[in-house]
Design a protein that fits this description.
Elements (H helix, E strand, L loop, with lengths): L1 E10 L2 E11 L2 E6 L10 E3 L4 E4 L1 E6 L19 H15 L2 H17 L2 E6 L10 H12 L2 E4 L8 H18 L5 E3 L1 E5 L5 H14 L3 E5 L3 H11 L3 H7 L8 E4 L5 H9 L3 E4 L1 H6 L13 E3 L8 H14 L5 H20 L14 E4 L12 H7 L6 E6 L2 E5 L2 E2 L4 H20 L2
Parallel strand pairs: 1-4, 1-5, 6-7, 7-8, 8-9, 10-11, 11-12, 12-13, 13-14
Antiparallel strand pairs: 1-2, 2-3, 5-15, 15-16, 16-17, 17-18
Helix pairs in contact: 1-13, 2-3, 2-13, 4-5, 7-8, 10-11, 11-12
The structure holds zinc ion.
Length: 429
Amino acid sequence: MILKNGVVATLDPQEVERTDLRIEGDRIADRGPALAPAPGEEVLDLEGALVLPGLVNAHTHLYSALARGMPGPGEPPRSFVEILERVWWRLDRALDEESVHLSGLVGAIEAARSGTTVLFDHHASPSFVRGSLATLRRAVEQVGLRSVLCYETTDRNGLAGRDAGIGENRAFLAGGQTALTRGLVGAHASFTLSDESLERLAGVVRDENSSLHVHVAEDRADVEDCRKRDGAGLVERFRRHGLLARRTLLVHGVHLSEPELREAQAAGAWLVHCPRSNMNNAVGHAPTVAFRRAALGTDGLDGDVLAEARTAFLKMRDSGRADAFAAAFEMLVGGHRLAAATFGLPLGRLDAGAPADLVVLDYRPPTPLTADNLPGHLLFGLDRSHVRSTIVAGRFVLRDRRVTTVDEAAVFASAREAAGRLWERMRQP
Ligand SMILES: [Zn+2]
């Protein structure tokens, strides 16, 4: 297939060029102006539509897809820990196989409609642990996106619950990964994990040559718990347990100090910045000025990475950063680098040999669009309403605004019914 007359833009390198792309199998086979179609080759004239590499959501919770509009907790939570106890831990305990599968389908469809092609998911369903990651993989692959899955290990459901979580991560890493789906070792957060639990997680990281994906210092309560537990900071605690290796995903880092951030990144860890979630939970604003290797995550709010980038920019400006514009753009680039390193593929590039993971947007810029001002168009002009088509590994997931891989209306109808049953189970004590 040839995509003709697209305005092809990449973030890294920062380029904008009107050109054609030839897609063969799961790769971009050729790039150049006026590519001549081979006999029988499909030609799709984009008529100047914008083509971007698929965006990367570096931290989300697909399981929250059926939470939208659910009844709130009786008494308003007064702290971050109360938000977890009264909302999210009630929801995740009520999840069963069907609701996990439907959450995955809905979340992946909404991501595709937002131009997101790679999801780093952090999953919890304590009543349905074993096989939960394979269920999510089935859902995300049915829609056709790439994902990086893990199970959120925690002590809060007892030792058997913890061991089930560790076992699920281990089993998925050993036998669940595919071309589109990779695994990581998931952990909830330091404040719900004992030293023994961290040792066991470190064992899986070592055995499977993988990395940890964990919430860190999202709220001050995590920092205080760690001080009380062993008199150390969070980065020190993870380092001591051998969990700060390459590509460890430290999510939030709102209350990490600058020396801690330097140490973690020097060890190879990535920070994932989730500004909309941080505002939603009123936990504070991350010290992004010390984020050197960072990507953006929606933390389950939706699949909209462009909205996350815009909020990241506005929040950084609001806190007085003069370089907020470049910093927010750099976090979008960070997502591509993180995904490329995770999949071992040049994701984020749109030239010959790169994976055909791209988004076509109905974006008619009212001003000139150049390589230099691409960040301005991304942060002030583009949003998910512009997404026309989404292609992952050479396959249309969304084509001319229609989901091509699953019956979207049927999925959403089933999801509405399952959400009602899920909310009913949440009401049970
Ligand atoms: Zn999260």
